[in-house]
Design brief:
By secondary structure, the protein is mostly beta strands. Helix content is 5%, strand content 37%. The protein is globular, with a radius of gyration of 19 Å.
Length: 140
């Protein structure tokens, strides 16, 4: 996959350890997010994702556990035909303002295959044990 840096001095996405599923994404700006507020944080990169794949932007567990910071539309999807800057919608679920500094790890990006399916309109759907049971239907 191709990556285009858009902002000098911002770390490029990288796996923190050999077993990491997601690559760390870094902020290209300084910002403060008040409690209950969300902000769009640019990462200073664009990517070229092959057809048949997507990138998913996910929160970092450390930011969530320590500061109550999450990714608002998690996981955020980056489509294969998008060529703009990757930005992350951070939300402050915590009780204190949160400072984002240029170069801070703010999210992670996971690449995944996607299927292109054709939907067929049908009058009936095949039966299952669950049927149309919704949320909580299994007692969990």
């Amino acid at each position: 996959m191709k990556l285009k840096p858009l902002s000098e001095g911002v770390p490029l996405p990288a796996y923190a350890t050999p077993g990491s599923s997601g690559m760390d994404l870094f902020s290209s700006i300084d910002a403060q997010i008040a409690p209950g507020e969300h902000k769009l944080i640019p990462t200073g990169i664009a990517v070229e994702i092959p057809v048949g794949y997507e990138a998913q932007v996910r929160p970092r567990s450390g930011l969530a556990a320590k500061h109550g910071i999450g990714v608002l539309n998690s996981p955020g999807t980056i489509d294969s035909d998008y060529r703009g800057e990757i930005q992350v919608i951070l939300f402050n679920f915590g009780e204190q303002p949160f400072d984002v500094k240029r170069g801070d790890r703010i999210a992670q990006m996971v690449f995944a295959r996607v299927l292109d399916v054709n939907l067929e309109v049908a009058d009936e759907l095949g039966p299952t044990l669950r049927g149309s049971g919704g949320f909580g239907h299994t007692g969990l």
